Amino acid sequence: MTDSLTNPDATDTDATGTDATGTDAVRPGYDDRLTNEDLAPLREQRWGSYNFFAFWMSDVHSVGGYVTAGSLFALGLAAWQVLVALLIGITFVYLLCNLVARPSQATGTPYPVISRVAFGVLGANIPAIIRGLIAVAWYGIQTYLASASLVVVALKLWPGLAPYAEAGSYGFAGLSVLGWAAFLAMWVAQAAVFWNGMEAIRKFIDFCGPAVYVVMFLLAGYLVLEAGWGSIDLNLVEVSITGWASVPVMFTAIALVVSYFSGPMLNYGDFARYGRTFAAVKRGNFLGLPINFLAFALLVVITTAATLPVFGELITDPVETVARLDNTYAVVLGALTFMIATVGINIVANFVSPAFDFSNVAPQRISWRAGGMIAAVGSVLITPWNLYSSPDVIHYTLDTLGAFIGPLYGVLIADYYLVKKRHVVVDDLYTLRPDGTYHYRGGYNPVAIAATVLGATVAMLVVLLGSSDAAAFSWFIGAALAFVVHTAGSRQAAGRS
C-alpha cells in the first residue's frame, strides 16, 4: 500500500520560512489561523541518509545519553546485561521512529500539523503543547549537562574559581554562581545556532556526532592503557543479578532506553519531513540507531568499567571522567567536545520541537523562532539541574515524561495506520471549513483526546503508585492503552456515522 495524498508535492521552506525560490510558501486557500511559512508543507525535501545518520549521532552522543546509559548499572545489572538492554531498547526505538516518520515524510509536514489528522485541526494543539512543554524540560536538562562541561574547563584553566563552583557558598536555586554563568553561556550559544535556521542546524549536527566519537575513542583508549586490559572488570556492581531474576530488570532497562528517546521519537516528523525519500529516512535511522548505538554502548561500558581501576571509583558521567585527567589540554578538549555534542542534541531534539509546537498554537503570532525562544526561557525557570541529579531522579524523570508522550504516540500511529489507512488530505490540514476532513466537532476529535487522557492518567498512576520497575513501563502502558482506545473508539464512531 502507498500513502494516499491529495497533495503529494511538498514545499521546502528554508531557514527564513520561504521556499527555495524565495517566494511565500503558504498556499492560497490555507487558513491563517492554521498556517504560516514554517508550518506549510514542504515543496522540496532535500535531506539524505547521512543527514539522518548525523541527527541520531548527535542525539545519542550526548552527556545525557552517556549518563542515562551509565545509570543502568544502578539497577544491579552486569556490563553485558546493560549492553544487551541498550541494544534491544534502541532497536525498538528504530522501529518506532520509522512508523512515526512516514506520515510527515509523505506529506512534508511537521509533527503538530500531522497530528491534526488524528486530533483535529484545533485539537492538535493539545499534543503540540504537551510535547512542547516536555521539550522545555529536556532543553533545560541538556543545557545544564552541557554547562557542566564548561565548568570543568573553567576550573581547569582558572583553579581560583573553585569556591564559586560551590552552590552552598556561592549560589542560588540549587546552582553555583559559576554554574549559572556556564548555564547562561550555553543558553546564549544554543540560541545563536537555532536563530540561523534549519540549514545551520543541519550543518551543525553533521559535525557534532562524528566529533564526539573521536574524543570518546581517545578517552576509552587512554583509560584502557592506564588500567591495563587485564585490570578491567566488566562486572561493575558488587553483586549482579543473575539467572531468571535478571530478566525483569533487563526489561526495565530496555523500557528506560525507550523512554529516554521517547521525546525526539514522537516529533521525529519535524525532521523526517525533510527526507528526499522514506527509504533515505529508514537507511539513516538504521545507521544512526542500531549500528551507531552499538558502538556507542560498547564505548560507554568499556570507559565506565575502566574508571574503577584508574580512579578507584565507578564514574558514569563522562564530564567528571574527563575532569579527572592529568593533562590540561586533554581535559579542555574532552569537555568542549562533550559540550558541543550536547548542544547538538539539545537543538535538534528540544529546540526545533517546541519551535513548531508553540507556533502551531497561534501561527500568525508565534513564528518558528519565537516558539523556540519561548522554550529557551521556560528551560531556565524549571531549574533543570534538580531533574537529573541522581540515577533515581533520572529514572523518575524519564518515567514521568514517558507517561505523557506514550499516549500521544499511540494515538498518532493508530490513527494513521489503522483508522485513516495512510490516507491524508493535505489541504484539509490547513482549513477550518466545517466540511474539512479534520474539522470533526468544532475542530476537535473527542475520541483522540479521550484516548490520550485515559492513557496518560493510567500511566501516571503507575508512576506515582506502582513500583519503580512498573513505572519504567509508563511509555508502553500509555501508548498501548491509547492505541487500543483510539482504534476502537474511532471504528465505533465511524459505525454510527
Explain what the structure shows.
With 497 residues, the protein is mainly alpha-helical. The chain has one domain (4-496): Hydantoin permease (Orthogonal Bundle), CATH 1.10.4160. The chain has 19 helices and four strands. A two-stranded parallel sheet has the order 1-4. Strand 2 and strand 3 (175-176) form a beta hairpin. Helix 8 (198-227) runs antiparallel to helix 13, helix 9 (246-266) crosses helix 16 (391-419) and helix 16 (391-419) runs parallel beside helix 19 (474-496). The longest helix has 34 residues, at 278-311. The chain is globular, with a radius of gyration of 23 Å. The two termini are 26 Å apart. Mean pLDDT is 83; it is low at 6-24.
List the helices and strands and how they pair.
Layout: E1 4-5, H1 49-60, H2 63-71, H3 79-107, H4 111-114, H5 116-119, H6 125-157, E2 171-172, E3 175-176, H7 177-195, H8 198-227, H9 246-266, H10 269-272, H11 278-311, H12 318-323, H13 328-350, H14 352-361, H15 368-381, H16 391-419, E4 423-424, H17 446-465, H18 468-471, H19 474-496
Parallel strand pairs: 1-4
Antiparallel strand pairs: 2-3
Helix pairs in contact: 1-8, 1-11, 1-13, 3-9, 3-11, 6-7, 6-13, 6-14, 6-15, 6-16, 7-13, 7-15, 8-11, 8-13, 9-16, 14-15, 16-17, 16-19, 17-19
Summarize it.
The chain has 497 residues and is mainly alpha-helical.
Anisotropy-based shape: globular
Which runs of at least 5 residues are low in confidence (pLDDT < 50)? 6-24
Overall pLDDT metric = 83
Q: And the CATH topology?
A: Hydantoin permease
Output the CATH homologous superfamily: Hydantoin permease
* Domains, number: 1
User: Can you count the helices?
Assistant: 19
Strand order of the largest sheet: 1-4
Structural class: mainly alpha
Number of strands: 4
Rounded to the nearest angstrom, the distance between the terminal CA atoms is 26 Å
CATH class: Mainly Alpha
Largest sheet: 2 strands, parallel
What is Rg?
Answer: 23 Å
> Which strand-content bin applies to the residues?
under 5%
CATH architecture: Orthogonal Bundle
Helix % is: 55-70%
Strand/helix succession:
EHHHHHHEEHHHHHHHHHHEHHH
